[in-house]
Design brief:
Helix content is 29%, strand content 18%. The chain is of the alpha/beta class and 176 residues long. It has a single domain, classed as 3-Layer(aba) Sandwich (Rossmann fold). Strands 2-1-3-4 form a 4-stranded parallel β-sheet, with helices on both faces. Strand 1, helix 1 and strand 2 form a beta-alpha-beta unit.
Length: 176
């Protein structure tokens, strides 16, 4: 019997496109109590894989073909990306069936677009994108984003060099 490939979600996009919200939302849906795995280079992914049925990684390397070339023989790869203004994902990736792209405005909490609205929108997009054996828990995602926001309020005045590694959230994160 052939061994089933492990699922890997790679959250990748340029900086300042809502990636911290997006990756914490993914964790909330799937791996609520696990810290963000930020990987500085995609070659480091195999060193960080857990024995879960799914792993989630955050990177800022947006050449998705590099990941596919290196890992698609071993893993089922799903890319969840975000875009903002001129910080766009290459148009060719918009047609890949394993790439899902969010606009920054879909991730931005406002007076008229709540965390719950963000989570519901993301759930509706992810439920048809990820394999059916990956369960998504909306309430856990909502709770994780609220906790992330609380932590941010606690560290907002700290220097950018300060990092909360659970949420991968920097001091002064939203101001620089």
């Amino acid at each position: 019997m052939e061994e089933q490939k492990m699922n890997i979600i790679i959250q990748t996009a340029e900086t300042r496109t809502g990636t911290t919200v997006l990756v914490n939302m993914l964790h909330g849906f799937i791996l609520k109590n696990e810290p963000i795995q930020f990987v500085s280079h995609f070659y480091n992914i195999p060193k960080r894989i857990y024995n879960n049925k799914i792993n989630i990684f955050k990177l800022h390397h947006t050449n998705i073909d590099d990941f596919i070339e290196m890992f698609s023989d071993k893993y089922n790869l799903y890319f969840v990306c975000s875009e903002r203004d001129d910080k766009l994902i290459d148009k060719k990736y918009h047609d890949y069936n394993n790439v899902l792209i969010f606009n920054y405005n879909e991730l931005l909490e406002t007076e008229t677009y709540s965390v719950e609205d963000i989570i519901n929108n993301a759930y509706n997009k992810l439920i048809g994108f990820l394999p059916g054996d990956i369960e998504l828990n909306k309430q856990d995602a909502i709770e994780r984003i609220h906790k992330m926001n609380t932590v941010y309020e606690e560290i907002r005045e700290k220097p950018r060099s300060y990092i909360d590694h659970f949420f991968e959230l920097h001091g002064s994160h939203r101001t620089t």
